[in-house]
Amino acid sequence: MKKILYLILPAFLLVNCTSKPHYEITGNIKGADSVKFLLQKRDGNSLVTIDSAFSKNGTFKMKGGPVDYPEMVMLVASDNRMRTSFYLENSKISITGTLDSLYNAVITGSKTQDEYQNYINSAREISDRYNDVVTQYQIARQNEDEEKINELTRQADEIQKEYVQYQKDFIKNNPSSFVSPSLLRGIAYEMEPDEIESYLNMMDSTVARIPAVSELKEMVVKMKSVAIGQKAPDFTLNDADGNPVSLSSKVGSKLLLVDFWAAWCGPCRQENPNVVKVYKEFNKKGFDIFGVSLDQNREDWLKAIKDDNLTWTHVSDLQYWNNAAARLYSVNAIPANFLLDEKGVIIAKNLRGEELYNKVKEILK
């Protein structure tokens, strides 16, 4: 009997070792013969390669792990950089598609990916309406139809608010989904810190332990330091001539708008005419602007200032998303702004278009 047990034990250990949690990816991509596929994830501003495999007659396999939690990754065809994104987790995942349209690949086998795809499908109607408004807006801009531009801007803002609420509802109704922290991170910049905390507290303990949640908690701490009613933290960056300018040196106007933007940011450039309008009308009444650019290229930054007629003080360290002031103010999306009173106290945030105009007009009368 003992001999039988000795024979069974190694077999048991072998099965036990091979059954550890892991991922298995099977790809079937038409038109991808002898193509090297990379499995990558984003780490800060960099892409990290997790795994790779060569395809044979369009098929390939990857196996690894375990992964600690479901995480968004990208499958990239190294030859033409076509890609598709999905949630990687410890399961058997199938990716089926065509090389030329890899972004449309069908992905099955990941529970979290299924949740994310259901979210995307349900939000498509809102997304389609927004895209239609954007198309009309571009036509109106070409025709210089200011009335139409203002109406379409209003519509876009309303749809965007509807979409943010849709995401909040998903988070509230799916506290155990690993999709929820990612969505919350995307809309957090439009929320007050107490509201972010309330959504974080809804999440299940298994979800709450992932890095994205820890980052959001750290973000809340920073956001509380730049919440409405707080004294705006001081910072110093160089202006267009390379001279250091501090925020505190600009405080003293009745109203000061700290405006985070960049030349490469389309929504920022679209918003700039509204900011210029407010500046021209109220500058002599006590309204000033302190522009903080998240650019990397100095020439692009200066050209955008000139092209958009931004005639106020501008500063930047040309560090992109690592901009020191943006990190201090927990800015993770632009355009973003903070309206300060004459004592440097934050009295409003992220005002755009008519909201900015009306708020400045209300205060300066």
Explain the layout of strands and helices.
Layout: H1 2-18, E1 23-30, E2 36-43, E3 46-54, E4 59-64, E5 71-77, E6 83-88, E7 92-98, E8 106-108, H2 111-142, H3 146-173, H4 179-187, H5 193-202, H6 205-208, H7 211-225, E9 236-238, E10 244-246, E11 255-261, H8 266-282, E12 287-293, H9 298-307, E13 313-315, H10 324-328, E14 336-341, E15 346-349, H11 353-364
Parallel strand pairs: 1-7, 11-12, 12-13
Antiparallel strand pairs: 1-4, 2-3, 2-5, 5-6, 7-8, 9-10, 11-14, 14-15
Index terms:
single chain; 365 residues; alpha+beta; Immunoglobulin-like; Glutaredoxin; 5-stranded mixed sheet; 4-stranded mixed sheet; 11 helices; globular; disordered N terminus
Can you walk through the features of this model?
This protein has 365 residues and is an alpha+beta fold. It folds into three domains: 2-109, Immunoglobulin-like, CATH 2.60.40; 113-225, no CATH class; 236-364, Glutaredoxin, CATH 3.40.30.10. It is built from eleven helices and 15 strands. A five-stranded mixed β-sheet has the order 13-12-11-14-15, with helices on one face. A four-stranded mixed β-sheet has the order 4-1-7-8. α2 runs antiparallel to α3 (146-173). The longest helix has 32 residues, at 111-142. The radius of gyration is 25 Å and the shape is globular.
CATH-level-4 superfamily name of the largest domain: Glutaredoxin
Report the sheet with the most strands, covering strand number, pairing sense and barrel closure: 5 strands, mixed
Mean pLDDT: 92
Low-confidence stretches: 1-18
How much of the residues is beta strand, in percent? 15-25%
Strand-pairing-aware structural class:
alpha+beta
CATH topology of the largest domain: Glutaredoxin
Number of strands: 15
CATH top level label of the largest domain: Alpha Beta
Helices, by number, come to 11
Q: Termini separation (Å)?
A: 95 Å
Q: What is the correct CATH architecture of the largest domain?
A: 3-Layer(aba) Sandwich
